[in-house]
Structure formats: structure tokens, C-alpha cells
Design brief:
By secondary structure, the chain is mainly alpha-helical. The protein has two domains: 24-211, no CATH class; 240-426, no CATH class. 71% of the residues lie in helices and 1% in strands. The chain contains 20 helices and two strands. A hairpin with a 5-residue loop joins strand 1 (119-120) and strand 2 (126-127). The longest helix is centred in the last third of the chain and has 42 residues, at 385-426. Its main location: membrane.
Length: 427
């Protein structure tokens, strides 16, 4: 494929990719999850500090009450993510329509609890089981937040509201204008809750978990799917499109639910249920698995062009920032580096999966990826020095795979530079 043909294909793909990236639903979900990132990080660090594999440390935090405090944090962060995401996604989705995110978030929260079962003890005490408030209820939370907010926005934008005189203060007028759309949204979920209560599922939560969340995690978290998706992401990067963002706009809810279940199990000291997830991909594909290439440019390059690029891109790459490498080299429409750029992620993912599957490397604990976290440290935070060591192995492997492609390009660049210098001297 020539560069002209590649650009033509890129122009054809761009409208579809842009439509996906500008989708109000996709942006609402991803924006809401990013909004909740500080809370998820808090739960991640609490789980990490609770489970540091040091006997004396564990005895100390248990004796002084720190362990109990950390468990309480986990209960209302990691094990409360369905509730948190319901509020944050509803608010983010409403902002796509320039509507009030606070009220829609509260409305979605009410609707979430309407469809959540309650338990009544023998003494007549009513309680809400925590079963659906964490990882297992995330997909219900997403669905409730989107539908609840969309009903509210539709009715409000259609003018089906209580209109107050202009003399009424704006705060009061806004409250009354939200009344009918809010009641209608709550009524819909009340009916839905009653319908599912009369079925064998019992709740909307159980239905969604059985027919949506488990199958989607099975497909989206399948190793074959992940290899194909992240290879496709690199193809999009090659065409100048932010492939990672495109893929995450589709799989982020699936991966987030998987990582939440992973982290909850880690915090409880139980066996980790998943191998893959967002944490798995982020841990083993930092900087598009091209850190070795950046280090080659820094330490091995003969040409000034690649030596300079190495100085600019090596450190950011170690911290998971790939843009200087991708656009500085550039990788976009650069067929010299097509093979390692597109397929290196898949190589790392396959190796990491196999080593984890056979038990040589422990499963990542599902800790939310922290932007700018350097390799090794990010591996340690996923629960084991072995994970960090594998990251280092992948850097060495990427340098080996990239070397022949880099060496050829570097020699060509060096030759051109030498010819330019000779011509300048002759002139």
C-alpha cells in the first residue's frame, strides 16, 4: 500500500471514527468514569496498602485499627463503584446536552436504588444488600444513568415541564421545571422494577448481569478479542487516529467492571477472577510497546535525527506518554516501522497472557492505571515484583524486535546527513 493509498483509506475511515468519538453516549460513559477516577484510585491504594505482603506490617495495621479503616474505604469506593458510576455517568451524559449534571446524577441515583432489591430481616429491619453496589452492578448503573438522563432531557427539551412566572427566582423555577421529567423518569424505573420482581430473575440487576455483563466480559475480555482490538488500535494510530481512545470508547465499561471485580477480590484476599482487563493491557503495552525503540534512538542512533528524537521521547515513553514518539518520529504513514508499531502490542499481550495463564506471573490486581506512572513502579503496584520484571523484559524484547527496522532507517538518515554535510563543505 502506497502512502497516497493509505491517506485515502484514512480519509474514508475518519468520518466513522469521528462519529464514534463524538458520540454523546460514548463520551458520557467515558467522561463519567474519568470523573470518578479519584474515587477509584482511592480504593485502589487502600487495597494496595491493606494487602502489602509483609507479615509484621499486616499485624501492625490490624492492631492499631488502620486495617479496619482501609476496609471501610474499600467498601465505599471499590465495592461501591456501581453507585458512584451511576451518578458520575448521568452527570457527564447530561452535560453532553448542556443540562444540569447535578440533578440528573441525583435522579439516576434514585432510579438505581428503585431497581435495587432490599432485604427485610426477621426483626423488620430494612437494608440494601451490597451485592449489586459494586462490580456486579456496574452495567446496571450505566444503563440506568443513560436511560434516566435521556428521559429527563427529552421531556425537558420538549417543554413538558411546569413553567413558572418570570417573577419567580431562577432557583425555584428550575426546581419546578425538573419536577415532571424527574417524576416520569422515576415512574419508568418503578414500573421496570415491578415487572422484573414478577419474573424468575427477581431484579433488573440479575437480568442485566446474566444476559449483558457476563457475555460482554466474556467477549471483550477474551484474549483473542483483546489482541485484535489492540492491533486495530495501532492500525488507527498508523493512520493518525488516536486508536487507544477509539477502542476504549467501546470497551471501557467492560474493562472497568472486570478490574473492579479484580480489585474487590484482591482487597478481600480472595483468588483474582480475571487475567485480562484494562489494568492488564495498560501494564504490558505502555507507550505502544515501543519503549525499546525510544531507548535505541537515544543510545544507539548514529544519525542526528534519531539521536535527537531519542532525547525527546525516551523519558516520556518510560512514563507511558507515547505522543512524542508517535508524532515525532513520525509513526503516522511511516511504512518503515509499520510491522513493529502495529504488532508489538499483540506480541506483549500474548506472552503476558500465556505466562499468567500457566501461573509463572501472577494476575494483575486490577488497580486503576495512573496516568504518568513509570514502568516497574506500575508493575509493583499491580501486586508483584514479577509483573515489574516482566515489564523490563518487554522493554528489552521491544528493543530486539525494533532493532532491524530502526537500524535500516537510522543508516538511511545518517547517509543523507553525511551527503548534506559533504555538499555544504564543497559549496
Amino acid at each position: 500500500m502506497s502512502k497516497i493509498e493509505a491517506k485515502t483509506l484514512s480519509n474514508k475511515l475518519a468520518p466513522y471514527v469521528n462519529k464514534m468519538q463524538t458520540s454523546k453516549i460514548a463520551n458520557g460513559i467515558s467522561g463519567g468514569m474519568m470523573m470518578a477516577m479519584p474515587v477509584t484510585l482511592l480504593g485502589s491504594f487502600a487495597a494496595l496498602f491493606l494487602n502489602l505482603p509483609i507479615g509484621a506490617y499486616k499485624e501492625f495495621i490490624a492492631s492499631v485499627g488502620i486495617a479496619a479503616a482501609l476496609k471501610m474505604i474499600i467498601q465505599f469506593t471499590t465495592n461501591f463503584l456501581a453507585v458512584i458510576f451511576t451518578v458520575s455517568i448521568a452527570g457527564s451524559y447530561a452535560k453532553q446536552y448542556e443540562e444540569d449534571g447535578i440533578f440528573t446524577g441525583l435522579l439516576a441515583l434514585v432510579n438505581f436504588f428503585i431497581v435495587t432489591p432490599v432485604a427485610v430481616s426477621a426483626e423488620g429491619v430494612t437494608s440494601i444488600p451490597v451485592q449489586w453496589l459494586g462490580a456486579t452492578g456496574i452495567f446496571t448503573g450505566i444503563l440506568v444513568s443513560l436511560v434516566s438522563t435521556r428521559i429527563y432531557i427529552y421531556l425537558k427539551q420538549k417543554g413538558i415541564t411546569i413553567k413558572m412566572p418570570e417573577s419567580v427566582p431562577p432557583v425555584v423555577s428550575s426546581s419546578f421545571s425538573s419536577l415532571i421529567p424527574g417524576l416520569a423518569s422515576a415512574a419508568v424505573f418503578t414500573i421496570v422494577s415491578a415487572i422484573f420482581a414478577a419474573t424468575s430473575f427477581g431484579t433488573l440487576h440479575q437480568f442485566i448481569y446474566t444476559f449483558l455483563q457476563i457475555p460482554l466480559q466474556g467477549v471483550g475480555g477474551n484474549i483473542v478479542s483483546i489482541i485484535l482490538l489492540w492491533t486495530f488500535a495501532q492500525v488507527l494510530w498508523f493512520f493518525g487516529i488516536h486508536g487507544t481512545m477509539v477502542i476504549y470508547s467501546v470497551v471501557l465499561p467492560i474493562f472497568t467492571a472486570m478490574d473492579a471485580a479484580q480489585l474487590a477480590a484482591f482487597a478481600a484476599g480472595e483468588a483474582l477472577p480475571n487475567i485480562t482487563g484494562r489494568a492488564f493491557v495498560s501494564t504490558y503495552t505502555m507507550s505502544g510497546s515501543a519503549i525499546g525503540f525510544a531507548l535505541l534512538m537515544l543510545f544507539v542512533a548514529k544519525s542526528k535525527q534519531y539521536k535527537t528524537l531519542g532525547k525527546l521521547s525516551a523519558v516520556p515513553s518510560l512514563f507511558g506518554i507515547s505522543e512524542p514518539l508517535v508524532f515525532g518520529t513520525p509513526m503516522v504513514f511511516n511504512f518503515k516501522f509499520f510491522v513493529p508499531f502495529v504488532f508489538m502490542n499483540a506480541i506483549n499481550i500474548i506472552i503476558a497472557y500465556v505466562l499468567t495463564f500457566i501461573g509463572l506471573i501472577p494476575r494483575v490486581n486490577g488497580m486503576s492505571p495512573v496516568s504518568g506512572m513509570p514502568i516497574i513502579l506500575s508493575g509493583l503496584m499491580e501486586g508483584s515484583w514479577k509483573i515489574a520484571a516482566l515489564q523490563v523484559v518487554f522493554v528489552i524484547l521491544s528493543a530486539i524486535v525494533w532493532y532491524p527496522f530502526f537500524k535500516k532507517a537510522d543508516n538511511e538518515a545518517f547517509k543523507i546527513e553525511q551527503e548534506s554535510e559533504n555538499q555544504a563543505q564543497e559549496a
